[in-house]
Amino acid sequence: MLDIKQLYDGFRNPETVRHLARTIKDEAEDLAAPLNIMEVCGGHTHTIMKFGLKALLPDNIQFIHGPGCPVCVMPKERIDHAVTLAMQPDVILVTLGDMIRVPGSQGSLAQCRARGGDVRPLYDPLDALRIAQDNPTKTVVFFAIGFETSTPMTAVLLQQAESRGVTNLLFHINHVLVPPAVNAVMDDPQVQVNAFIGPSHVSVIQGAKIYQPLVDNFATPVVVAGFEPVDVMESVLRLVRQKVAGEARVDIQYSRAVSPDGNVPAQQLVNTYFETRDAFRWRGLGPIAHSALRLKPEYAHRDAERQFGAVLTDREIDDHKACQCGDILRGLAKPADCRVFGRGCTPQRPLGSCMVSSEGACNAYYRYQGVLNER
Ligand code: SF4
User: Transmembrane residues, as ranges (predicted)?
Assistant: First the structure.
């Protein structure tokens, strides 16, 4: 039988990590230019910080943190939507974990709850179905967030609500897409990224093929990496080797979970219920065309944005003046560049979204700053 602990001990083996670090250092001497690797996903940021991987790399290799934290990229006006919905009579607003603590212009959902809003955290999206069934006189709104990874779960919830005739469950859809966001980052002339560690959970669903246009458009290698330190270091080595060889292609390091084509039934389920929005405003990145999903018109009866359209506004709301989340999400700044990092902004009292979630760069820097010792 597969010994999971032994397996993961292997992916965290310090000697393997050190060996990879030595190999990277040797081979990176042949790089013609510095290698600036964007790890798109906040899960990879977390691994890099937690295990101090940056300190193992030579000076000509840098990590640049990307926009792959769904909580971090949610703009304030969407959080305001959630707060407004939660304050409506006979509405229960349900959403996943960290979203409750992200500040909008009217405060966070946690503060809204203190003012009397019925806000309930979910650990499993399907719990929303039970809450709706248990409260037939109320309208339950699922504030759905996440990248391509979590959209299938929302689709399953909707499918279940339809098939069981649970009519009092609505959806406020905030599912966003990785490729358009990464393209937007690369279109910014200030951004110095020339290699990517590709998000792997997204790739489990969508397949690594979704990065081929990125490689084609920008001649930038992409390695889809697992989340353990050995995965990340091996992926860095693979990027170094592509660069030294003058190549740019999509490579799958995380082959134990990711395939080129992904989970086709999950993709089909998502396509049953969702369509692409013309544009969606990302925190820090601004409006990006075709970068998010919404429910198809035939599911308008489930769409909280349509059903509560009279009380929801789409006024753009800027971040706190001191917050540099925007620059961090675009790869132009590091958390320690923010003057309120660890002072006015901490995980206990977050000022910006990047400090809330464990996938946020500011949160990871704060949590592991003893490891990093970068400030
Ligand atoms: S430390 Fe806080 S205020 Fe500064 S960029 Fe990060 S989240 Fe924003």
Answer: none
Among 341, 348, 357, 359, say which to mutate for ligand 1: greatest number of ligand atoms within 8 Å of CB: 341
pLDDT, tens digit, for every residue of 70-79?
999 999 999 9
Q: What is the largest CA-CA distance in the chain?
A: 67
Ligand 1 atom with least separation from CA of 333: 5
Reference 321, options 340, 349, 335, 342; nearest CA is: 340
What pLDDT shows up at residue 1? 62
pTM of the model: 0.93
* Ranges of the chain whose pLDDT falls below 70: 1-2, 4-8, 370-375
CATH classification (class only), 76-175+263-307 = alpha beta
Q: Is 208 in the pocket of ligand 1 (CB under 6 A)?
A: no
